[in-house]
Amino acid sequence: MKPFIVADDFGLCEKHDKIIIELAKKKKVNAISVLVHDELSGKRVNEVRKMRDYLSVGLHLNLTMVLPKIQPIGSIKTLIIKSLLGSLNTREIKKEIFSQIREFEKVFGTLPDFIDGHEHVHILPSILEILSKRVVEEKFSEKFWIRSPVTETMADLYRELSNAGLKVLIITALGSRAKNKLNRLGILTNKNFAGFFSLKSPSRNFKQKYLHLLTLKKPDMVIMVHPGTSESPTQNKNHSNEIRAIEATMLNESGIYLT
Ligand SMILES: [Zn+2]
Questions:
Q1: pLDDT tens-digit profile of 152-187?
Q2: Cα(56)–Cα(42) distance, rounded to whole angstroms?
Q3: Distance 121 CA to ligand 1 centre (A)
Q4: How far is CA 84 from the centre of its chain?
């Protein structure tokens, strides 16, 4: 797999989306992961459709955030605990996964090039079980992949831990199991991953660390980014618009040109 810089959360708000579209046009990102919902249509979707020959477009499976006519199944913490206790409502989750894949197809006219999850929800064991079954049954492209949020080497893991702290360990533990399952099933996935940060507010060395991230040129690596604007009306206490705006500026000013 080629290296990807994936802009997550496309569809969250028109103002963020505009920034992501500009970055994709300038080849600063070569993949976007889309939150589907009832109000995702119009100009921003047409802009994405025009870039389909060089821009990978994935489904950002969302089970944890309120969006137009989408009610979350629970917070990520609740879902992790319920998943470990085996008490998730799998019928409800199955319905939601199927409906988001169908909605993506309706909006873009094709199945997604890849699937990942908002807050990495797709790697939870019972959720991945449902998703991977669906993927095996559905006619996805031969190049279709599911994202793994797991680093390849100890050095990569150390970098992510120093950028984002303990959450990286929890995601790595769950993600390693998920990666093994994907490999067993023959579903493509990335070998390496980067891009964890504490997203509530920019940390002291955020710019320096982000710059380092953008210089990583490793094969088969996915770098997760969240560019956007501070002028967005969406206010999420766990993910500041200020960080999204810094990310957009740094990507814009970088020498990155992805072909
Ligand atoms: Zn997300």
A1: 999 999 999 999 999 999 999 999 999 999 999 999
A2: 19
A3: 10
A4: 22
d(CA 123, CA 129): 9
- Distance from the CA of 183 to the center of ligand 1, in angstroms? 24
What is the 119 CA–ligand 1 centroid distance (Å)? 6
What is the amino acid identity at position 28?
Answer: K
Euclidean distance between the first and the last CA atom of the chain, given in angstroms as a whole number: 13
Q: Where are the beta strands (DSSP E) in 62-166?
A: 114-117, 145-146
Find tokens 């060395």 and name the residue. Answer: 205
Q: Is domain 4-253 given the CATH code 3.20.20.370 in the classification?
A: yes
User: What gap in Å lies between CA 247 and CA 225, rounded to an integer?
Assistant: 7
Say how many Å lie between the CA of residue 65 and the centre of ligand 1. Answer: 9
Q: Rounded to an integer, what distance in angstroms lies between the CA atom of residue 3 and that of residue 6?
A: 10
Question: How does pLDDT run across 98-144, given as a tens digit for each residue?
Answer: 999 999 999 999 999 999 999 999 999 999 999 999 999 998 999 99
pTM over 0.85: yes
CA of 64 to the centre of ligand 1 (A): 10
Return the structure tokens found at 126: 């019972």
